[in-house]
Design goal:
By secondary structure, the protein is α+β, with helices and mostly antiparallel strands. It has 2 domains: about 90 residues, 2-Layer Sandwich (GMP Synthetase, Chain A, domain 3), CATH 3.30.300.20; about 35 residues. Helix content is about 60%, strand content about 15%. The chain is built from 4 helices and 3 strands, in the order αββααβα. Strands 1-2-3 form a 3-stranded mixed beta sheet, sandwiched between helices. A hairpin with a 5-residue loop joins strand 1 and strand 2. The longest helix is centred in the C-terminal third of the chain and has 31 residues. Keywords: Cytoplasm, Ribosome biogenesis. InterPro entries: KH_dom-like_a/b, RbfA, RbfA_dom_sf, Ribosome-bd_factorA_CS.
């Protein structure tokens, strides 16, 4: 249990450092300003950190290439800011949860519109 809490704390610290770097530290033109870190998962042995990023507006593929190109710089900054014996390898992954949430919200809105339209047509038919 203590190990789980430790990995959660380390993951949160890594998330803070990488988020700050995305705002101010990385000058790669492929990395758009609409990149945000949604989650970080660290393996139990602290050898890998999976950084989930959400990319809104822009080319996901080129942004991900830019992040992967800057991974050594990001890892060095994580090493400076998070005191660990061994800094984990950072692996970037796309997090589509925001995009999927927007899609689901749109579907729900359309269903509600269809229900409202059907009920208003039903009410008009009963008035006659």
């Amino acid at each position: 249990m203590a190990s789980y809490n430790r990995t959660k704390r380390i993951a949160e610290e890594i998330r803070k450092v990488v988020s700050t770097m995305l705002i101010s530290g990385i000058k790669d033109p492929r990395i758009t300003s609409m990149v945000s870190v949604t989650d970080v998962e660290v393996t139990n042995d602290l050898s890998y950190a999976y950084v989930y990023v959400s990319i809104l507006g822009g080319d996901e593929e080129s942004t991900l290439k830019g992040l992967r190109n800057a991974v050594s710089y990001i890892r060095r900054e994580v090493s400076r800011n998070v005191k660990l014996r061994h800094t984990p390898q950072i692996i970037f992954k796309i997090d589509d949860s925001i995009k999927n949430g927007m899609y689901m919200s749109d579907l729900i809105r359309k269903v509600n519109e269809n229900i409202n339209t059907a009920s208003s047509e039903k009410e008009e038919g009963s008035d006659e």
